[in-house]
Amino acid sequence: MSDRTAAVTRETAETTIEVTLDVDGDGDATIETGIGFFDHMLDSFARHGLFDLTVRADGDLHIDDHHTVEDVAITLGQAFDEALDDRRAIHRFADRKVPLDEAVADIVVDVSGRPLFEFEGEFSQGRVGDLTSHMAKHFLRSLAMNAGLTLHAGVTGENAHHEIEALFKGLARALDDATMIDERRGDVASTKESL
Asked: For residues 30 and 18, is the Cβ–Cβ distance under 8 A?
């Protein structure tokens, strides 16, 4: 198997983001975004997806969390796109239903190169720590658009911490499943012979 890694940097007037990713890692994570709950979610994402992930973000948190969360998602999405290259021999499709106490997240992903995002559900509270709850949905959208994913996500529950964490864990497991190499396949999983 070829090396499925990437290092991507994004610098704007609002943020400076550095991401390194190893799709075939052990779940090791070093996360520093300045948003405690977001760090926790990215660490959980790396651990449950078995992705080695480093994220360093310096953003305009004196304004709010929007630019930092969005730009981390953009950069992480670009890192997945780069690391997966032509997506040769991956399983491509996956779905996971992941609970966390009363909350349940549903994730369906196609690592297709065709970005699309659909979401069903509401968050029960407006904030979890320093993270605005709706930014979890925006993170998923921005990641999907930049990684080239068709991503359908939904969540139910009564506690926004649980709802958001279930989404991040579900996404991690589904992406791990979808990006696994199928040893029986020598090409891409498409009649077009390209993703």
From this structure: no
Distances (CA, A) of 40 to 28, 36, 47, 82: 13, 6, 11, 24
170 token code pair: 């579900």
DSSP letter assigned to residue 192 = T
Task: Report the C-alpha gap between 84 and 65 in whole angstroms.
Answer: 29
3-state secondary structure of 189: coil
What distance in Å separates the CA atoms of residue 151 and residue 108, rounded to the nearest whole number?
Answer: 6
Residue 187: pLDDT band (50, 70, 90) is confident
Give the span between the Cα atoms of 171 and 153, in whole angstroms.
Answer: 8
Per-residue pLDDT at 17 exceeds 90: yes
Which residue do the tokens 């991690």 mark? 172
Q: What's at 117, amino acid-wise?
A: F
